[in-house]
Design goal:
Layout (H helix, E strand, L loop, with lengths): L4 E10 L2 E11 L3 E6 L6 H9 L6 E6 L2 E2 L4 H7 L1 E4 L11 H7 L7 H14 L1 H5 L10 H14 L4 E5 L7 H16 L3 E6 L11 E6 L2 E7 H6 L1 H7 L4
Parallel strand pairs: 3-8, 3-9, 6-7, 7-8
Antiparallel strand pairs: 1-2, 1-4, 4-5, 9-10
Helix pairs in contact: 3-6
Length: 237
């Protein structure tokens, strides 16, 4: 079976500074793939390059069996959807309006409404606040809207940048419960995390990024057996 996402030799950066060095990996259909590692080592840059927000200097990216579109909107229309760090909501719009913006590339209004109902089922708090302006939401609620907007875009692969960043432990637990539920329904997810404690409980495949390269890759079982990875990045847990 072909991988949903296949990346080979991806190199890119900002102006004259190279950040990613010939990164290669695949993401299979279904489940959660995690990219872990410290800040400043290229994790968010990788997601920006995959989504089309940052041009590749060299290498190949194939998605759903074909070379990716050059533009970020073209990749989003194909189902390669980024949930960015910081969520980037429209502060003056309501929760529901922000969610509906995620479906702007779709034309199937009946299915869009059905997806909206699924988002509200996944995040009941958003249903309660559907008419509330995004500017009044908590950090956790904003993160829920960001993930919900990715679902509204009918993502084949949802790429989520630091879903636990700045959130209280209880909210982080709720976010990852939702991601685990989505994965159980067949949603493919690629998640970037600096602190992998929560994602280690739900992801099936892990890539450790260090200095713009993958220093280690393995399954959840491999991660548990790797003393070096556990001690360095999971605090021995």
């Amino acid at each position: 079976m072909n991988a949903l996402l296949a990346v080979r030799g991806l190199t890119t950066g900002y102006r004259h500074i190279r950040v990613l060095h010939e990164v290669s990996f695949t993401v299979e259909q279904g489940g959660i793939t995690a990219i872990i590692g410290p800040n400043g080592h290229g994790k968010s840059t990788l997601l920006r390059a995959l989504s089309g927000l940052l041009p590749a200097w060299s290498g190949e990216i194939a998605f759903d069996g074909a070379a990716v579109a050059q533009s970020a909107p073209g990749r989003a229309r194909a189902g390669l959807v980024l949930v960015p760090q910081g969520d980037q909501l429209f502060a003056g719009m309501t929760v529901e309006e922000n969610l509906m913006m995620g479906g702007y590339v779709r034309q199937d209004m009946a299915e869009i409404r059905a997806t909206l109902a699924q988002v509200f089922e996944l995040f009941p708090r958003l249903k309660e606040r559907r008419a509330q302006r995004a500017s009044s939401l908590s950090g956790g609620e904003r993160r829920m809207v960001g993930i919900g907007r990715g679902l509204m875009a009918k993502a084949k692969l949802m790429m989520i940048d630091e879903p636990s960043l700045g959130l209280a432990p209880l909210i982080i637990e709720q976010i990852y419960q939702a991601l685990a539920e989505l994965a159980a329904r067949g949603q493919s997810i690629l998640v970037v995390e600096e602190n992998p404690g929560r994602v280690a409980k739900v992801a099936t495949t892990f890539h450790l990024m260090d200095g713009g390269r993958f220093a280690w890759s393995g399954s959840s079982a491999d991660l548990k057996q790797s003393g070096h990875i556990l001690n360095t990045y999971l605090g021995g847990h």
